[in-house]
Amino acid sequence: MNPVSSTLKVALLSAFLTASCVATAAVSEKEASRLGADLTPFGAEKAANADGSIPAWTGGNTTVPAGFKNGGKRSDPYASEKPLFVITAANMDQYADSLSEGLKGMLKKYPETFKVPVYKTHRTAAAPQWVYDNTKVNASRATLSDSEVKGAFGGIPFPIPQNGEQVMWNHLLAWRTPSHHVDVRGMQTTSNGQHVPTIYASGDFQMPYYFKESNLETFTDDDEGVFWKIRLLNYGPPIRAGEAIVGHESIKPGGGQTWVYFTGQRRVRKLPNACCDTPTPASAGISMFDQTGVFNGTTERFNWKIIGKKEMYIPYNANRLFQRPSEDILMDHHVNPEDMRYEKHRVWVVEATVKDGQRHLSPKRRYYVDEDTWFAVLADHWDANGDLWQMGFSNPITMPDIPATAPPMNFGFYDLISGAWYLDGLLNDSKEQYKVMERYDDFTFTPEAMAGEGIR
């Protein structure tokens, strides 16, 4: 394992000292002053690593390509680059310490076709200055008590994390544009390689947590801590046309709500348990609610532990994945490696184990959270028998117009036991891939609005 960084040593010490406290305290003003100094404004190590394979962060990618149109296909700024090397089943032992268990599992399961092409590392993560300013305020103000975030708004809540649960809240509240539209498409692939569309939908998304014109008080009071809103209106496949779903995620445990529109009943129903290992209607029941975006929803069902910070090969700057038609990137058992891009980055490795008295289909999980963006990009899932079951993944892309490096709603998982897999955010054939929107009216994300748009 790579040496534990000085940032992690501070975090582990702080976690030990506060382990007996009900609430996790914010860091001191002195510690917060490191943001923008030896740490990036988001809390990552600003310096390059020892051998220079991870460069220093110098502000990220904020250069918008000529001719870019909002909502159009995003070009690959590194299209001319070739892999530095390719990890295969034959040479994986050489790189094993920098690979997730899921990637190693896929290399072993599909030795002839699955590969990890490693490219030059580009630290493209960026955000507006006001998000950096809010992050610095959050560092010395935000706390975590009984899985509820308090005192955070408009930035990373815990840029200098003290425990694993804080890291996962950083993922949930990571920076992206406050309002956007995506033409959502999902694909299930069976164990014998048959591709089955699960959803074609118009997707609207809003993150009140990042409303620039708002503040901590209005966010927690007016919106009751709802940090994420989603509305999907299905137009395919034919069997699912007309279905719809509206969801709200809250910083308060149990505060989220989800409603679905059933075409057969022509009624809107509130889901009683839109959480955790419940199958999500948006994927036709293929994936669990908390697999959305690698991890989503409440943190209260698990104990969270930081395993360490490591230099690992992870999907990154994956713009190349969306340049070709979807039929070209979908292979029988995985995405075509020619369309994937992996880079070496520092990640927080966080392990989740289900709490006593709780249950989950995957009682043990491990997440790999990028230090620059705070997005979880890989995950390992073990089943109740202790077998490595699934590899979760997302493919973050650089979006300098926002600016951000964030998942364009592209995520999925490989089932290492059955051989089936799922990919959401298959935007290759979409007319609008990721369109930045003006703030939606709040009524847009209500069950009443969804009921009024029912077409079957």
TrEMBL record:
Signal peptide: 1-25
UniProt keyword list: Signal
InterPro entries: DUF1329 (IPR010752)
The protein's name in its UniProt record: DUF1329 domain-containing protein
